[in-house]
């Protein structure tokens, strides 16, 4: 267990070493938060109550999603594993006396924690200074939010890990991975809140694994999740377990497939 | 936008650019499956904002006084202009990596325009995928708009895309210059490029007067689509700006291009290698 914690710690330290780069990213997240918020405000001005949200909820949503983009890896098309499979460096990783999946989870978790520290707070704080937002003052919703984000992160890792493993078969994960980003951007509710998408599409979107990555944690934070915290946790856990187990099975299959080129 | 010493260069800037593009295209087409999938991903990504606009219009009839065909006209012209500029100039996005890895030193010692090399860097045909959705959307919007097409309107409509393309290209080069000053600030550039792409596909009114005026006179992206479209769509300017601004896009494009050329020259002249 200690080796994984060390991996998390070192990966976190590496992320924190590039602080100015992360802060530049936080600036961009804030700009995009403002743009999305203003679009949503234009909509809510005409429909003051939409899917149980008022304008303040919508604005809060715009900034918290921007805060979650990087830690949740919504724009990331795979893990750092993908390029290593392409280049062949993965042979070294397969020799390590650690569990392959847990090793990459640890490294990615360090990155996510670093991003959470440097890139989540600025957009939300600046957003709350510029616009009226609704952030709970009691600790309970925040604790529930953090739990939901944790499980949502496992889902995000599970998806990106599977996308990276594709490279064992195709030699280049970038194609499948870029499709994953495009689908994920929309299905996680980054472009538009999933709760206001009408009809069948809306119903489907609320049940994909991405729904638990950003939309559900924010619903829990705002207290508008139907079925409450319990439903959000149960839903997210089912997807997280399914994806991590699938990742494990595919890892085993890949181990049998890989041929190390000697030289 | 050539550099200072052009005398002993074997190729004229644009010709060198096209040669380099051809080279990168051949390189990208080595991974065929990946190329097809990434092109599809680009196509799909440009649909996302379209879906967002359609979702918004299932709830309301107009946004800031603009109907669905009118907003889709803004979306189509913006995305078409941006997509074209992305094809030509988004190689600039690799500049920070080039500078950090010291590869920009190599760019400078080659007898070819540095800007041509940087713009052509990592050129990939997948970017053409970005044009499909805007073209189809614009086609539908032009069909659905209740606009009486005069020669002047058609000219302004075509001019919108051309000037928008030039404005965005200038913006790519200007944001590329950021990485000469602060190599870590790569993502700040995205606020200006992708941010303005996102901003101009909606009626500018939704951003309010102060931000709307800033996007007109400071970062002049209002001239990409908004100002000329007010003329084409026959809308009064909600900010009450003078009418001649609707035809000022060529001027804005020329000014921003000039600024970009000056900034690029200045940055290259003061470039210091990272030395690692």
**Which sheet architecture does the biggest sheet of chain B show?**
none
Shape of chain B: globular
Order of helices and strands of chain A: HHHHHHHHHHHHH
Distance between the termini of chain B: 29 Å
Residue ranges of chain A: pLDDT <50 for 5 or more in a row? none
Low-confidence stretches of chain B: none
> What Rg of chain A, in angstroms, do the CA atoms define?
19 Å
Please state the oligomeric state of the protein chains shown.
heterodimer
Strand percentage of chain B, roughly?
Answer: under 5%
**Number of beta-strand segments of chain B:** 0
How many strand units of chain A?
0
Largest interface, per-chain counts? Answer: A-B, 35 and 39 residues
User: How many separate helices of chain A?
Assistant: 13
Mean pLDDT metric of chain A: 90
Query: How much is the average pLDDT of chain B?
Result: 89
Q: How much β-strand is present in the residues of chain A?
A: under 5%
Shape of chain A: globular
List keywords for this structure.
heterodimer, A: 263 residues, mainly alpha, 13 helices, globular, B: 276 residues, 12 helices, 68% helix, 0% strand
Description of the molecule:
Chain A has 263 residues and is mainly alpha-helical. Helix content of chain A is 73%, strand content 0%. With 276 residues, chain B is an all-alpha fold. Chain B is globular. The two termini of chain B are 29 Å apart. The interface between A and B is large, with 35 and 39 residues.
């Amino acid at each position: 267990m200690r080796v994984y914690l060390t991996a998390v710690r070192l990966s976190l330290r590496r992320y924190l070493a590039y602080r100015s780069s992360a802060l530049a990213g936080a600036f961009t997240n804030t700009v995009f938060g403002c743009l999305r918020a203003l679009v949503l405000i234009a909509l809510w001005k005409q429909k003051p109550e939409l899917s149980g949200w008022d304008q303040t909820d919508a604005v809060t949503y715009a900034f918290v999603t921007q805060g979650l983009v990087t830690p949740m890896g919504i724009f990331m098309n795979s893990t750092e594993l993908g390029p290593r499979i392409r280049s062949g460096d993965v042979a070294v990783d397969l020799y390590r006396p650690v569990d392959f999946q847990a090793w990459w989870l640890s490294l990615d978790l360090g990155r996510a924690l670093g991003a959470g520290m440097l890139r989540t707070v600025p957009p939300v704080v600046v957003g709350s200074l510029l616009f009226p937002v609704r952030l709970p003052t009691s600790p309970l919703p925040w604790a529930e939010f953090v739990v939901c984000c944790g499980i949502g992160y496992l889902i995000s890792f599970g998806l990106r890990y599977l996308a990276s493993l594709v490279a064992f078969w195709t030699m280049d994960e970038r194609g499948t991975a870029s499709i994953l980003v495009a689908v994920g951007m929309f299905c996680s509710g980054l472009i538009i809140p999933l709760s206001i998408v009408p009809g069948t599409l809306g119903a489907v979107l609320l049940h994909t694994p991405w729904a638990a990555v950003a939309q559900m944690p924010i619903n829990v934070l705002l207290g508008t999740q139907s079925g409450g915290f319990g439903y959000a946790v149960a839903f997210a856990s089912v997807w997280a377990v399914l994806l991590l187990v699938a990742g494990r099975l595919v890892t085993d299959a890949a181990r049998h497939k890989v041929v190390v080129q000697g030289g | 936008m050539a550099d200072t010493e052009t005398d002993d260069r074997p190729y004229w800037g644009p010709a060198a650019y096209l040669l380099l593009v051809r080279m990168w295209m051949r390189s990208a087409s080595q991974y065929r499956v990946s190329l097809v999938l990434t092109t599809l991903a680009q196509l799909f990504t440009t649909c996302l904002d379209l879906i967002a606009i359609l979702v918004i219009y299932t709830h309301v009839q107009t946004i800031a006084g603009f109907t669905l065909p009118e907003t889709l006209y803004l979306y189509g012209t913006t995305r078409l202009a941006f997509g074209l500029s992305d094809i030509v100039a988004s190689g600039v996005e690799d500049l920070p990596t080039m500078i950090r890895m010291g590869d920009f030193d190599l760019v400078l010692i080659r007898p070819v325009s540095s800007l041509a090399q940087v713009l052509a860097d990592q050129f990939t045909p997948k970017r053409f995928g970005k044009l499909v959705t805007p073209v189809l959307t614009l086609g539908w919007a032009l069909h659905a708009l209740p606009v009486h097409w005069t020669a002047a309107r058609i000219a302004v409509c075509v001019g919108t895309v051309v000037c928008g393309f030039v404005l965005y290209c200038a913006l790519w080069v200007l944001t590329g210059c950021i990485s000469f000053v602060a190599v870590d600030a790569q993502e700040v550039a995205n606020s200006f490029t992708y941010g303005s792409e996102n901003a101009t596909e909606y009626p500018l009114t939704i951003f309010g007067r102060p931000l709307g005026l800033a996007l007109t006179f400071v970062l002049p992206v209002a001239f990409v689509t908004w100002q000329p479209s007010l003329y084409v769509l026959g809308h009064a300017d909600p900010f009450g700006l003078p009418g001649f601004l609707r035809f000022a896009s060529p001027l804005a494009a020329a000014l921003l291009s000039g600024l970009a050329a000056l900034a690029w020259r200045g940055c290259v002249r003061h470039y210091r290698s990272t030395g690692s």
